[in-house]
From TrEMBL:
It holds the Pfam family RVT_1. InterPro entries: RT_dom. Residues 23-54 are annotated as: Disordered. It comes from Oncorhynchus tshawytscha (Chinook salmon). Residues 310-477 form the Reverse transcriptase domain. This is Reverse transcriptase domain-containing protein.
Length: 488
């Protein structure tokens, strides 16, 4: 490239017209003398502002210094995906998936149903209700469509020619500079640090591995909540779960496709999210179980699918921040509020009792007897998942014996049902005439209080005396409050 069109016109024409006026060519020395001064100051202001934002997005408590390149990379977030080089096999695989989708659309447009094993054998499968829980389809129809076949051949021909060309991958535009790529590699090879997302606020936290492991074992060594196992119980749990699902299929609670989809098997992983908003130097960790493809995760998704629609019927349930604002706008007597109040349940996930959560879920999700699956089956599956929270940390296997493991798909739904049932207990009606509006989301609650300050403190003390394991912190003000609860 030899420059922008404006620069080329300046080189070729000593004088040209712009907007009806004759513009004299500016000498090269004068242009280079004036422009860099103004642009340099503007670029400097932008870079300083960006550097401040990057420092706020990264919290380093590891004790190791971070270069500017490392900070820039980490400030992009843990979900940032660097550009990778083109791979011929992956490209062909993606093209095949694309062609398959086109053929499927053409196939079903003709209103032709694929042949299934059930229809061939003559067995009628009783499907209780249409759910998204089914094995991933591998059906690839053969469609005699000349347009699709010609399109696929031409695309394949062009792609093959493209790969035959000598591509200079160094000229490929990358979303990271060379120094930033080196920073990513050095961070991934550093065994002395751990990079995690903060529990609240969104920054990326870099802490030493020793500090991270110490905090993890501080929690896992608590015999009240966790039990260390000397063997891997996965095979025994698979056998037990298979028996439960087989009986459910025979009773018509689940279909054959759901049976295949709900049966999985692997161990979950234990992680910590540093709570830097509570302590910056030695932040406590919020325990989170990463259960993707674990034994209980498909069951948890199945439970959440049937229970979550009932949450909208709860009087105090908040869906997201927009829901909070909409509820406040609809209030007519908000002017009578004396205090704005927020409450937070301390360590709710690890202290909530299974019996209370299951009772609240059963009370909320009572379904007609004609609907499948029945409520008792869903509650029994929930109880099974709660009693088999098994995970691994540093080659050691643990089982949670009290509370709930944060990370399961159905857990927020279970907690919301329990909290609404806990708050709306009839024994607390003596205080309800002081509450103008109450909303809650998982372990956070927000309310407008019309009573006196002494009555509010008495109400807070009363809630903390109901269950010795459940403690609520409270903040209140007449002007403003901070509410971290619902997120989009």
């Amino acid at each position: 490239r030899r420059g922008s069109p404006q620069k080329l016109r300046g080189q070729l024409l000593p004088r040209f017209f712009r907007s009806g006026r004759v513009v004299t060519q500016v000498p090269q020395q004068e242009r280079t003398r004036k422009r860099p001064t103004w642009r340099g100051r503007k670029k400097s202001r932008l870079s300083n502002h960006t550097e401040q934002d990057q420092n706020k997005a990264v919290i380093n408590i590891s004790g190791e210094p971070l270069s500017n390149d490392r900070i820039r990379v980490l400030s992009k977030g843990l979900s940032f995906a660097p550009t990778y080089s083109t791979n011929g096999f992956n490209t062909k695989f993606d093209l095949f998936s694309f062609y398959r989708n086109l053929h499927l659309k053409a196939w079903y447009k003709q209103n032709i149903s694929p042949t299934t094993d059930a229809s061939v054998s003559g067995q009628a499968v009783s499907v209780p209700s249409k759910t998204p829980f089914k094995p991933k389809s591998t059906f690839c129809p053969i469609v005699q469509n000349s347009t699709l076949n010609t399109f696929a051949k031409k695309v394949n021909f062009d792609v093959e020619n493209l790969f035959k060309c000598k591509i200079d991958y160094h000229q490929t535009q990358h979303n990271l500079s060379k120094t930033e790529q080196d920073a990513v590699e050095s961070l991934s090879k550093n065994e002395h640090i751990v990079v995690k997302k903060a529990d609240k606020g969104g920054p990326t936290v870099v802490l030493s591995k020793d500090k991270y492991v110490t905090e993890a074992y501080r929690q896992l060594d608590n015999d009240e909540f966790y039990q260390s196992l000397t063997f891997n119980p996965t095979e025994d749990l698979k056998t037990e779960l298979k028996g439960i699902l087989t009986e459910a299929k025979e009773n018509g609670y689940i279909s054959d496709n759901e049976f295949k989809c709900l049966f999985n098997g692997s161990l979950a992983y234990f992680n910590l999210l540093p709570k830097v908003h509570k302590h910056l130097e030695n932040p406590p960790g919020r325990p989170v179980i990463s259960g993707n493809e674990s034994l209980t995760e498909p069951i948890s998704k199945y439970i959440d699918y049937f229970i979550k629609p009932f949450l909208t019927s709860l009087p105090a349930y908040l869906q997201d921040t927009t829901d909070v604002l909409n509820n406040i706008k609809e209030l007519n007597n908000i002017g009578t509020a004396s205090f704005l109040v927020t409450m937070d349940v301390e360590s709710l996930y690890t202290t909530i009792e299974h019996e209370q959560g299951l009772a609240a879920m059963h009370h909320l999700s009572t379904r007609p007897e004609t609907e499948m699956p029945p409520t008792e089956f869903i509650v029994s599956l929930t109880e099974w998942t709660l009693n088999h929270d098994i995970f691994i940390f540093q080659d050691r296997i643990f089982k949670q014996v009290k509370g709930c493991a944060m990370g399961a798909t159905a857990l927020p739904t279970l907690v919301c049902t329990w909290e609404n049932d806990f708050i709306l207990d009839p024994s607390k009606y003596q205080f309800f005439d002081r509450i103008i509006w109450w909303g809650c989301y998982i372990d956070d609650a927000c309310l407008f209080w019309s009573g006196s300050e002494d009555e509010l403190i008495s109400f807070h003390q009363y809630l903390n005396n109901i269950n010795p394991n459940i403690k609520l912190t409270m903040e209140y003000s007449k002007d403003n409050i901070h509410f971290f609860g619902p997120r989009h």
